[in-house]
Amino acid sequence: MAKKGKNEKGSIKAAEGVPPVQAEPVAAITEAAPPKETKKGEKAKAETKTAGKKPPKPLDSKEYMKELRRLQIELVKMQNWIKFKGLKLVVIFEGRDAAGKGGVIKRITECLNPRFCRVVALQAPTEREKTQWYFQRYVAHLPAAGEMVLFDRSWYNRAGVERVMGFCTDEEYAEFLRSCPEFERMLVRSGIILVKYWFSVSDDEQERRFRSRIDDPTKRWKLSPMDLESRVRWVEYSIAKDEMFKYTDLKQAPWHVVNSDDKKRARLNCMSHLLSVIPYEDLTPEPMSLPPRRKDKTGYVRPPITDQTFVPEIY
Predict the structure, then answer these.
(1) pTM of the entire structure?
(2) Which of 46, 64, 135, 236 is geometrically suited to a Cys-Cys bond with 59, CB 3.0 to 4.6 A?
(3) Over pLDDT 70: what percentage of the chain?
């Protein structure tokens, strides 16, 4: 994993229109979780390497469905192993609006047992929750033994939308960057397997998806005024993301970036990586045989079918 650049001035660069964090709390953050340094020229080489690179051809639909089916079967095997071993898995999905997080979560959970796999997508905090310890409402959704929990956005709201839109104070933001690494290390020490994904989408592709949602009545609910505002503040969100990575890309819980301009490839790549996180064994039970129906020996007579109310058969 490439190392991140260090903030030499010891201050958090503020997005346009967002007040900078005060020097004193930032200094404390820097001491508690020093940013990683970048090798000279590493970023420039990476940019040169990817410049002018043509995007791969779209996946063939049959090929995509075949591979999706194979990965979903493997995810079922992994879930059986998690239940058997009593593991606790937390997967965080973060990224820009319309980056494809929801589509990946849907494909991951599609074939899993919902009794042991939950998706957590919290709304804005209530007035009462705003007075709690920031991580408190997320702790309530952490898994027990044998469970998987997928966070469709998470405590990183504070480092993203809350920071850019001014929903938290500079002190609250600074405290998050200071305490989040310790919070996540604590989760890992407790036995939780923590996996963090960032879905990266380009400016042009996000705009295309936004316009598609506007034009499709079945997708319009996915757009909110906050989503539209994120288009206006693209640069500010970029700065917030980079700052977040600088302090929370941990050895114990690193960020994994998913290139999501191609939705199908992003889904397959993310699912494949998730399967690689947990070494699992195939505990699929042997196929069961269907027993024949027992013949009725009671002489029971069912009531007339006309006594029931049926749904009109329009189709």
Answers:
(1) 0.80
(2) 64
(3) 83
